[in-house]
Amino acid sequence: MEYNKLTLLFNQVKRFSYPYKENEIPKNGIYVMFEKGEKHSNLDRVVRIGSHTGQNRLFERINEHYIGEDHRDSIFRKHLGRCFLTIDKRVDYIKCWDLKIKKREDQAKNLDKINWALEEKYEEKISEFIKSNFTFIIIPNLTDEVNRSRIEAGLIAAFAQGEEKSISENWLGRFHPDKKISNSGLWNIQGINGSPLTVDEIKMIENKLQTH
Fold first, then answer.
1. Cα separation, 169 vs 85, whole angstroms
2. pLDDT in tens, 156-168
3. 3-state DSSP call for residue 103?
4. Which residue, 14, 22, 150, 158, is most buried by CB atoms nearer than 10 A?
């Protein structure tokens, strides 16, 4: 029931696509993504939910997915890359794709294992794919980080656990090496087994969307 209600609600909200404008994106909130070709009945199916850490960083976080060109700053981009590598029979490189290089000690261990030319090719492919295939809505004005995190987690659980969902046969997520993606129908792993939204939390979301 939650799945159907939330899908209908989110399909009625103002939709953003690339290129979006900074002055139209609230400073704090949760983004909810749809993907071309993914349907629930006659509605667009939700495929990813995400947010941001810290204050006033929602626009920056969305940019990290769409135009950041560094999958190590975006787990969403990392998931897409894993699928493309699998399709291209480059599963052997996924362990390098997943390597951490932000900290000095990680750089010392991992930098020489990375094929930068190959990664640049996939970063470009991912950027083009996201720009062409994903749209999103915003649940705005969630300024309290603890509350924002809880609503994000509740949404992920609600959509991951919804038995009503239909995942297309050709969905890219079916090629992900972690079956949690293909089984849930979401480009999310963390939070899929958590506690779905309560009735009061859904009402709060409805109010946020109506007043925006």
1. 19
2. 999 999 988 899 9
3. coil
4. 158
Residue 173 and residue 182: Cα distance in Å, rounded?
5
> Rounded to whole angstroms, how far apart are CA atoms 183 and 96?
25
Distances (CA, A) of 177 to 3, 34, 123: 25, 21, 18
Whole-number Å distance between alpha carbons of 66 and 78: 12
Please report, for residues 15, 20, 73, 98, 109, the alpha-carbon distance to residue 70 in angstroms, rounded to integers and kept in the order given: 25, 20, 6, 12, 19
- pLDDT, position 154: 98
Q: 3-class DSSP state for residue 36?
A: strand
For residues 145 and 137, give the distance between their C-alpha atoms in angstroms, rounded to a whole number: 19
Which tokens hold the place of 185? 């129908």
CA torsion, points 192, 154, 26, 210, in degrees to nearest 10? 130
Using DSSP, how many helices (H) and how many strands (E) does the chain show?
9, 4
